[in-house]
Amino acid sequence: MKLNTPTLSKINKEISIPMYNRQKLKSGIIHIGVGGFHRSHQAYYIHQLLTKHTVTDWAITGIGIREADRKMADALKKQNGLYTLVTQHPNGTVDSEIIGSIKDYILAIDTPQLAIDKMADPDTKIVSLTITEGGYNFNPTTGLFNFENPDIQHELAHPNEPKTIYGYLTAALIKRRKKGLPPFTIMSCDNIQHNGDVARKMVLAFAKKQDPELSDWIEKEVCFPNTMVDRITPVATAEITEYLKNKYDLEDEFPVVCEPFIQWVVEDNFSNGRPPLEKVGVQFVPDVTPYEKMKIRLLNAGHSVLGIPGALYGHRTIDACIADPIFLRLMRQFMDKEATPILGDIEGIDIEKYKDSLEERFSNPNIKDDVSRICSESSAKLPKFLIPTLRENLENGGSIKYATFVIAAWCFYSDKGLTKNGTPLEIIDNQKDKLYQAAKNTKHTTKAFLNVSEIFGELPENERFINEYTSMVQEIYKADDIRELIEHLL
Ligand code: CS2
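That is the input. Now the predicted structure with D-mannonic acid docked in place:
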């Protein structure tokens, strides 16, 4: 049976379905970047709110601004916004439920004006974003807005033809301002420290180029709360689709898989109201800094520390890395020796317990989080997750061994695109070619990879780092067995 509104009442009773009247919902939230993560996290929290409380104003309309969003648009259209969330517990229990909080979806590349009008609708109170670390369009070393991006240049020259979030957000804000409507809140839900502050800085830079008066208005009126988001959401494989079909006779074109753990910490800073998410476990705090820093520098960095060397060894998934004692120790050493000293004491948080909980979550054997997902877009991730820790340790005289090892491994990974045994790796990265061009010169100039200045900045000038990096790169290129090398390192 195909999943959609008419079939909902006929679905196998073991799967829970939305118990609220979806027809009556208003879209208080517009979300740009509906993917697996948004659907396992924010849309799930909203679903719970709609289920357990008499809330009707805070459903979600999704917006896709890239060609790559077409598959999601098609699936959600056929399924009336419905999808199955499959939660995989470590003990093998699987919960499947149908989520109904996404009321609508607009594929903005086909109908940009419709998307802008929806964002400018009086019912819209929040525009939220999961556009990935790379989507913010800034130079990772300078932190400045990248005006060289041709899409940005295009939308600045043709404000009616938006291409990136910046063109869409400003077009909608201009419209609201003209109509005398209050602005929406812009809520980033990406893994970037101070994601709200970053979004604000970028939106203001863009708006200022467009119209200084508009940027003054945004500066005064639009709130950009910082948020920390967390739920491991691997890419849903064909097996999940098959599982739903075989077990429940349910045909879902785009289900979502996730771990049971979920967390959302949000700064209570909204321009135009917000849903009462505290009723379903969201933490509203005055300052999200300690939570986000801890999460990004431990969980996300920990993923990369496992993923890049793990991929070279031939481990396919994160749980396979964790089940390997050498990789587990590599991650824990990085966390204990390099990340924890930087984090210092965090009020109300037991960091040792937090790290233990990460080990447990990463070891969930039913999540099968592919290392290719973890390593994807490393060019945007490492400058947020790992390199800041390395820099701070260089300043403080702390250990840099493990972070440097990961960068050296990343060089080999980008250069060869193979495991140490010669099996091809699937590399997914916007900067893939640039990374390859730099890395392939390593055989002549050991530090060639570090010439990618948007990522490494002034790091190649740091003597201590260069010495460490040089010897590690040489060892990695020489080694037959990367696992032995890690053992030696440890
Ligand atoms: C991962 C994250 O892709 C990555 O690098 O670290 O997607 C991670 O799984 C989530 O942030 C967990 O909340």
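The pocket of D-mannonic acid is lined by residues 191, 230-232, 299-300, 303, 373-374, 381 (CB under 6 Å).
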